[in-house]
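Standup notes
- DV: blocked on the single-chain target, sequence here:
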Amino acid sequence: MSRVLVLPPLLILALAACGAVEPSDPPPSQDGGTPAERPSDAVAVEASAAKGSAEPAAAARPHQDGELAIWKEPSFQRNFAESYMAETEIEPRVTAAERDQMLRVMELISAEQVDKAAEELEGLRGATASAVIDFTLANIRFQRERLEEAAAAYQAAVKKYPKFRRAWRNLGLIHVRQREFPDAVRALTRVIELGGNDAITFGLLGFALTNVENHLSAESAYRMATLLDPDTLDWKMGLARSLFKQQRYGEAAALCGTLIAAQPDRADLWMLQANAHLGMNQPLKAAENLELVDRLGQSTAESLAMLGDIYVNQELYEPALAAYLRALERSPQGGIERPLRAAKVLIARGAVQETRKLVEYLVSRRGDRLQADEHKDLLKLKARIALAEGAGEEEAKVLREIVELDPLDGDALILLGQHSARTGDLERAILYLERAASLEAFEADAKVRHAQLLVRQGRYAEALPLLRRAQVVKPRDNIQDYLEQVERVAKTRQPPCTQPRHPIAATSQRSPASPGSAPRAPRRAGCSIPSCARRRPWRPRPNRIWSRARRR
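- DV (later): unblocked, structure below
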C-alpha cells in the first residue's frame, strides 16, 4: 500500500496566506467548503507539494506543445494554493455588538421606520465596520430608487469583503437598471464565480452581454437561464435574439415558431421571426408575418414601411403602395423620408400610377409641413411622372422650377438635358449635361447621359472619353459593358476612303480555259489600304475537288 502524504500544518497556513484576498478574511465555516478542482495529474501535484512547492506539476514541467499557458500564470498558482484550505464564507461576519445594533435596525424597518433605520446605519458605518452594515443601507437606498447612493454603498461592501455575493448581485442589478452594461457584466460574472446560479442572474448577464455585443456568451447565459426557469419568456426571447445576431437565422426562426405556438398574440415574436426569414432570403414569409402583425393591430409605421419595401423588391407594387399609405396613416406626424425613397424606387421600376398616388397623398396630407429638400424631391418625382406619361412641357416646367430653387441640383439638370434631347435641342441638352458634370456628385451620371446622346448621333469616338471618365469617377459593371460595346462599334465604323486615286488591287489576267477562248476582264479586289471601308472582306475559297465532282 502507498503511503498517504500529510502536509505539515505550518506549510498549509503559509500556502493559504499567499493566496488570500485580504488578510482579514474570516476562518472557514464549520461545515467546510468545496475545494477547488485539482489538475488531472493529482499524483504529481501531491509529490510537488511534499517538496514544499505550491506549484502544480503541470507548471513545474517544461512547456510542451499542446499544454495550456495558464499553468504557469501566477493567478492560477495562487488559486491552486487556496485549494488546500476549505472555501471561505460568502457572507461577512458581524461582532456581537454589531449584531445587537443590526437587530434594532431590523426592528425599525419592520415598523416601517425606514428613514430612521437609514440614519442608524449611517452612524454605524466606518472603515472597520462590517460590510453587512453597508449592504443593509444600500438595500434601503435601492428600495427608495436612490440608485447612485445604493451603488456606492454596495461598492463599499464588496471592497470590505470581496466575496460578499449578495452585494455583488444587487450591484449588478443596479448597473443593469442604469444601462451600465460593462459594469453589470463584471458584477454578475463575479456572482456566478462565487456560486450564484439562479435564473435571474444568468438572464440579466445574458441581457448585459447582448448589449456589449458579446452574443456568443449571451447565448450561453440565456441557455442557463432557460434551463433554470423555463417558464420565463424573456430568457427565450433573449436566446432567439442572440441567435439572430450571430446570423443563425434558421435556429432563431425555429425557436420563434415554438414561442409563437404558445403565445400567438405576441407581436414581437412575429417581428423577430420576420427578420429571421429576411436573413434566410425568404421575403414572402417575412411579409406574411408582418401582415399578421397588422391584423393583430400591433403594427407600427416602421413595420408597415418594411412590408412595403419587401413588396417593392418583389415587384408587387399595388400591395406596396397600400403598405406605404398605411404606414403614413399610422404616423401622421412622422417624417416622409422613407415614403419619398419608396416613391423614387417605384418610379425607377416603372410603377407610374402607384408613384402618382403616393406623391398625391404626400402633397395632400403633408404639403404644408414639407421642408425645402422634401419639396424639391416631390417636384422631381412629378417631373419623372410627366416624363413617363409623355407630358413633355409639364416636365420641363417642373424641372425649371427646381433649377430656379437650386441651380446646383444635378438631378434636375440631367433631366432637363434629357428633355432637351428629346425635343431636338441638342446644344441646350449638352449644355445642361455639362453643367451637371461640373458637380462632383453628379459627374459620372451626367457624362454617361452625354455619351448616350453622342452614341445616338453616331459619334462613337467622342463618346468614349466621357464613358471612360465616368468609370474612373464611379465604376459600374453595366457602364463597363456599355463602354466595351461602344468601343467595338467604333472600331468597325471607320470613315470611308476619301482618296480619289490610290492603288487598286487587281488580279492578273488568267489563262483561257480552252484554246481560242476570249480573255477575261481583270477582277477588282477592292482598295488595298487596310482601313478603307471599300476593301472587300476575305471569303473562303470553294473546294476545287467538290467543284470538279459537281461538273462531272
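- Follow-up: The two ends are 116 Å apart (CA to CA).
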